[in-house]
Design goal:
single chain, 2,3-Dihydroxybiphenyl 1,2-Dioxygenase, domain 1, four-stranded mixed sheet, alpha/beta, 4 helices, 153 residues, globular
């Protein structure tokens, strides 16, 4: 008798980003270089486009596809930007941030120590997706975070 199918597949979390990228093959190469992503699978589509791909970054999965304008599936550059930021916790934010910038990301907020206890910075990848990278440095109470925010002014 076979075992029951898990409602959330092994290795997946409840929430998984799914990005739309103009030239997903280039995005896969960028994420591999910038974030040490490991390609888990790629489903090729017509004209060499990527119908679906799955990458592992740290302990999480990132899914992506090429743009398909005929199906109203376009990336942030086609939309004039994105209101979404993907947050990535890493062991060493300074090294990871530099690696992403060296791979072609644009700095939108340099790395610095933040009032909530993280060392944190923001980039935009070459495909228009926004990322924040952080390393948690200090455990703080909600009151300490509130005070840190007030002191920031």
């Amino acid at each position: 008798m076979s075992s029951p199918v898990k409602p959330i597949p092994e290795g997946m979390h409840s929430l998984t980003p799914y990005l739309i990228c103009a030239n997903a093959a280039d995005a896969i190469a960028f994420y591999t270089k910038a974030f040490n992503a490991v390609e888990q699978m790629r489903l090729p589509g017509p004209d060499g486009k990527v119908m679906h791909a799955s990458l592992k970054i740290g302990d999480s999965v990132l899914m992506l596809t090429d743009e398909w304008p005929e199906h109203r599936t376009v990336g942030p550059k086609a939309l004039g930007g994105s209101p979404v930021t993907i947050h990535l916790y890493v062991e060493d934010v300074d090294a990871s941030f530099k690696q992403a910038v060296d791979a072609g990301a644009t700095v939108t907020m340099p790395v610095s120590d933040m009032f909530w206890g993280d060392r944190y910075g923001q980039i935009q990848d070459p495909f228009g997706h926004n990322w924040s990278l952080a390393t948690h440095k200090r455990d703080l109470t909600p009151e300490q975070i509130q005070q840190g925010m007030r002191d920031m002014k």
